[in-house]
Amino acid sequence: MTNPHKIGYTFGILLGGFHLVWALLVMSGMAQAIYNFILWAHMIHIPITIGPFEMSAALTLIIITTAIGYIMGYIGALVWNRMHK
Question: How far apart are CA 58 and CA 10, in angstroms?
Fold first, then answer.
């Protein structure tokens, strides 16, 4: 049996953490170069420009993705526990 809250916290921290790193990359100005590399490596040619850093957008992104990660982890743990009774 798993603890749904612990799994929820774990998934929330992971998903929110990834988006925190993305926000830091945008803030530092490195996001465009990384995004360009990813597109190049996948042989995709889409002209996309990463916009300027906005604190309110970054906080919204991090908070929402952390909450979604928690919910996904919590539900996943409930399903896991139900299937392994």
Answer: 20
